[in-house]
Amino acid sequence: MNQDALMAWYRRVKRPLPWRTDPSPWSILLSEILLQQTQMERGVHYHQKLLKRFPTPESMAKSSVDDVLHLWQGAGYYSRARRLHALSIEVLNKYDGKLPDQYTQLLELPGVGPYTAAAVASIAYSIPVACVDGNIRRVMARQTNLEEPSTKEVQTYADGQLFYNAPGDWNQAMMELGALVCRPRKPSCSQCPVSESCQGRFRAQELPRPKRIKKRLMEYKCVVRIDDDGLPELQQRPENGLFAGLWGPHMAAEVDTNGCEFVGTIRHQLSHRELVVSVWKSDGASGTNPQEVALSTLDRRLLELAGIVTNVP
Ligand code: SF4
């Protein structure tokens, strides 16, 4: 791959994302954790919200996990928020509130895997480690014309391509290439700065072969109980289950729905599961204002189906 061509292209087209204009290690870490499973536009929104409320690891460490979950609501994959809070406490206690500048130390922090550690180490501290994620796998599979490259093959390829003089920019350039040009569908090969070395270009759309994920179907029943003021009864979801720590109406595999009014069914997709939730509503004793607690997107949908306005973005 022509490194100079890719770097020149990146410097010309890179998007002015907030963590690029203000590249503090904490800001970069937040962006990488958010963008793992959140689309760019939403990722920017949540990044700005989090950074405003928690400008440093210390400010997050001194807040409660509920505060973090509250800001995180709607972003999905809530375990990330819980681990981020745990990370901030570890950074405060072990590193005096400063994110460590070694790849191996970053890797030991809660919620930080090889990709995030490599991204923060290279972008924030210019340490030469290559990032590997779905974008890089796709670019690699196409450049080398491999249908199903193994994780090790992708890592070896990424390590071999790394531009040591500017590893942070290089990793971002590879990501940007995957996001803007070498897209999963309809890659813009005619505008690609590294098309000359691309062996799989003639069948790019077929590469790499998608990994099939068979989702587990899970059925639940939910009763939304509403008090005289129109507020729903909400409970905090247990630590060891779905949406741990977030709040929502009572939902379980079996729920007593006697005397309740059926209002509909919601299908909700998670990464490895599809939830089918049948929803009822009935009178309740004492409700909670849904604006004051952290709700998952599913819980918001359940409440809205029962006629509760949540006003959460
Ligand atoms: S030429 Fe096309 S398939 Fe190959 S890396 Fe560029 S955009 Fe991807």
Concise synopsis of the structure shown:
The chain has helices spanning 3-13, 18-21, 25-35, 40-53, 57-61, 65-72, 79-95, 103-107, 114-125, 134-144, 151-161, 167-181, 297-305; strands at 216-226, 235-236, 247-248, 250-252, 261-269, 273-283. By secondary structure, the protein is of the alpha+beta class.
Report on the architecture of this protein.
Strands 4-1-6-5 form a 4-stranded mixed β-sheet, with helices on one face. The model has no long low-confidence stretch (mean pLDDT 92). By secondary structure, it is an alpha+beta fold. The protein has 2 domains: 3-206, Hypothetical protein, domain 2 (Endonuclease III, domain 1, Orthogonal Bundle), CATH 1.10.340; 216-305, Nucleoside Triphosphate Pyrophosphohydrolase, CATH 3.90.79. Helix 1 (3-13) packs across helix 12, helix 3 runs antiparallel to helix 9 (114-125) and helix 10 (134-144) packs across helix 12. The two termini are 42 Å apart. It is built from 13 helices and 6 strands. It binds iron/sulfur cluster. The site of iron/sulfur cluster has 13 residues, from helix 10.
